[in-house]
Amino acid sequence: MPPTPGRAKPGDCVPAPPPRLRSTHPTNPDARVESYPAIRYRVSLPPRKDIRWISRAVLCVLFVAAGVLHFAMPEPYVRIVPPWLPAPRALVYVSGFFEMAGGIGVLPARTRRLAAVGLVALLVAVWPANVQMLLNAHAAGASPSWQAALAARLPVQLALMAWVWWAAGRPCRAADPPPA
User: What is the DSSP letter of 9?
Assistant: First the structure.
């Protein structure tokens, strides 16, 4: 009789059972813990392969770092504020504050959508500064490669807006852990 698929034959190497985990049940210490993902879900750690969570972490680092630079080195930002806008230094500080707030805000679920709306609005609001940076480079006779890089930055900012919106969205149903 041929062996049944999935069944171990005598003498086969059989993998060891998973280690017994300590129960997190509040009243029954002998309650069986099913798997590591169940523990991860109970303590609200993200699944390792959650691309949206990784994206939010990267966005947080990028926006917080950019916001800090607005305060640490405001002069380069002040120079690219369009001349038709009032109080360039104040605008740099305000945009830096909201970059940091939005970057931090994309992490918690409660503030994620509001932070995404705010960051997309901020990216739209600073669009004139990016255009002004390109105009300043052209007027100063910057190298064509630098002007091309600044021109390429404009559509990249559209992609950044889409990335922020996507990362703050609800995860796919297939990636959701089962309800506890």
Answer: P
Residue 97 amino acid letter: F
pLDDT of residue 97: 97
List the structure tokens of 147. Answer: 């002007």
Structure-block tokens of residue 56: 């939010």
The whole-angstrom distance between residue 117's C-alpha and the CA centroid of its chain comes to 14
Question: Residues with Cβ < 8 Å from 30, sequence gap 6 or more?
Answer: 23
pLDDT digits (tens, 9 = 90+) for 118-129: 999 999 999 999
Dihedral of alpha carbons 42, 44, 45, 46, sign: positive
Centroid of chain to Cα 156: 16
Q: What pLDDT, in 10s, does the model give residues 149-175?
A: 999 999 999 999 999 999 987 654 544
Q: Is 114 left (phi over 0), alpha (psi -120 to 50) or beta?
A: alpha
Tell me the two tokens of residue 17: 């059972």
Q: Select, from the ranges 30-34, 39-43, 136-140, the one with the highest average predicted confidence (pLDDT).
A: 136-140
Q: Residue 176 has what DSSP assignment?
A: S
**Positive or negative CA dihedral for 129, 130, 133, 135?**
negative
